[in-house]
Amino acid sequence: MKVEISQKKLYLIIMSLNCNEINLILDELNLEGAFIQDIIQPGYDTIAFYTYKNGTAKTVLVCTAQNSCRINETRRKITKNEKPLRFMEFLKSRIKGARINSCKQIGLERIVKMELSHVNEEFIMYIRLWNNAANILICDSSNILLDSMFRRPGKDEMTGKIFLPPEPDLSKFEKQADWKIREFDLPELYKKIPEPSFNQQIDFWYSEHASTLSRQALLEKAEKWYNTTKNKRLVALNNLEAKLASFENAPMFKHQGDLILAYGYLIDGNSNFLECEDYETGKTVKILIDPKKSAQENAAEYYKNYKKAQSGSEDLKHDIEVAKNQLEKLENLYQEILNEQNPVKIEQLLRKDSTPKQQQKKTHPGLDYNVNGWYILVGRDANENDELLRHHVRGDDLWLHVRDFPGGYVFIKNKKGKTVPLDILLDAANLAVYYSKARNTGKTDLYYTHVKYLRRAKNGPKGLVLPSQEKNLCIEPDKNRLLRLDSLHRQADI
Q1: Which residue, 95, 120, 122, 123, is CA-closest to 35?
Q2: Across the chain, which distance is largest between two alpha carbons, in Å?
Q3: Which of 258, 335, 380, 470 has the fewest CB atoms within 10 Å distance of its CB?
Q4: What are the DSSP E strand ranges found in 78-144?
């Protein structure tokens, strides 16, 4: 979908507010003596101040986005971000409830200086409305920067630095008449309002057009992301399916092993091939062998390859299913983005998906699984075991570990008033066996108890604990159960 914009409209959008327009907006706002009652930051480049003065409430919107840079009163509902943003939390802690003692533009520099007082503290808020370098900066009374919407080390716009606002350029006053206050072509819906204020014109225009452009730009970004991601996942899926096809000849390895055993007496110790008659087809076949090995040893190699191909085939089918689920989830997410009208939410969806998994902050070490509402944590080595024990589990959580083998600790987080179901216990037990040296030993003994019954071994290695009141559990590792758990873990990372 393309947005058609006339040259006149495009000019109005691209141009930032000029100094005369900013002065007119500030005159209409008349913020001197008002109090800042609340602050909402819907996105990284937009913030709203809810002010109150003499029984009148006003919402002052400041947008620092390129081509939409402005300050004006708005009567539209401000959408909250899903997570509180850093700068908003700082403003709430320092200037919420503050009185606006003065609010004016510095000369004609398109920088609004707002002097604030809160309890016994004095603050200065600078709102720089430059199209390519807009920012909001909070300073103390000595102009020492406390924080800013955008932290820019290259411009010394960082906490602790001194912010030096520009000196008013007197030569600009001679050109002031050249900067005209524009008339905005309002949509038909708003033309019924008699003599709208300049703040209303700004709000109507940018709310209608800047959001549309922002949404359209985000949709174009989403389309590019979707096509790139889909192509990568399709290539991965095709590679998995091609590899699975190569395993279709797995039964041939078993059959060749059977032939070697049947005709093992023909191995002469010199030839690299066993030539014999295939009793299934009646044809003569040549089978590659090691002449220095016995028939049983050669057959064992073929049986080994057969089992490996069989096992690999099962794993690949599981990976193919996960890859298909990833594609389906991608399609659903893209459709959600296309249907979303709020640009802030579109940006949030894109930002959440485009953050590389390795850059996303983990709250705990090891692995985690969410199975039917039960949360399972897995430590894979001594360091992860120790970290989980120290900081991420509590006394009523359940601990599992294999007997007589080193391995990872598995924890099932407690649910108040609930007993751990047997199926969840078996899931955790299989994970404990898999992440231990007992992985390939078949039937395995484990023990489990609550974390509060674990005691650290005095002078023992990191993570070593001595359990009490433990119970025994013996299981045969269940490959299908492990595949299901692995699928849950992978889908959680999509």
Answers
A1: 95
A2: 109
A3: 335
A4: 99-105, 111-118, 121-128, 135-140
Measure Cα distances from 217 to 203, 206, 272, 301 in Å.
20, 15, 66, 59
Sequence-separated (6 or more) residues with CB below 8 Å from residue 469: 449, 450, 453
Question: What pLDDT, in 10s, does the model give residues 406-429?
Answer: 999 999 999 888 899 999 999 999
Residue type, 324: K
pLDDT tens profile 297-344: 999 988 888 877 766 666 677 778 878 888 998 999 999 989 887 776
Q: Cα–Cα distances in Å, from 382 out to 216, 409, 449?
A: 50, 9, 19
Q: 180 CB contacts (<8 Å, ≥6 apart)?
A: 18, 20
| pTM confidence score | 0.50
Distance, in Å, from the CA atom of 17 to the CA atom of 12, rounded to the nearest integer, reads 9
DSSP letter at 153?
G
**483 and 490 in contact (C-beta within 8 Å)?**
no
| Tokens (6 digits) for 236 | 């991965």
Residue 153 CA, chain-centre distance (Å), reads 26
Q: Is the dihedral of CA 179, 180, 184, 185 positive or negative?
A: negative
> Rounded distance, CA 370 to CA 388, Å?
17
Count, residues in the chain: 494
| Residue 310 one-letter amino acid | Q
- DSSP string covering 418-429, please? -PPPHHHHHHHH
